[in-house]
Design goal:
One of its GO terms (molecular function) is metal ion binding. The chain is α+β, with helices and mostly antiparallel strands. The protein has 3 helices and 5 strands; from the N terminus they run βαβββαβα.
């Protein structure tokens, strides 16, 4: 059983269509220019899941990002929050030479 889901909003992708605020106004607000802002920390309880997922699927520019589900712990241990992967370092090692076709 899920404790809810987590989402994130990439405001750099938002083009101000406002569909997210139409479907889930408790989680998305629009600024004076029509661009979306996320209300809260991105945690969505199970009872609001359908509205938020509809907003996510209907976003024409995919600015709403699904971060996963919160699941209650059976053993009551504190779990570390999921983190996004860091970007690979293009300067690390010579492994990127074959990809770019660059020859020294």
């Amino acid at each position: 059983m899920s404790d809810g889901l987590r989402i994130r909003l990439d405001r750099t992708l938002c083009d101000g269509f406002g569909i997210c605020a139409k479907h889930a106004p408790e989680y998305f607000s629009l600024d004076d220019w029509g661009y979306a802002s996320l209300i809260g920390d991105g945690t969505v309880p199970e009872n609001d899941r359908d509205a938020v997922m509809r907003a996510l699927f209907d976003c024409p520019v995919h600015a709403i990002i699904y971060m996963g589900e919160h699941r209650p712990s059976d053993d009551n241990k504190v779990r570390e929050e999921p983190r996004e992967s860091s970007e690979p370092d293009p300067t690390a090692g010579d492994s990127n030479e074959a990809i770019s076709g660059f020859v020294r």
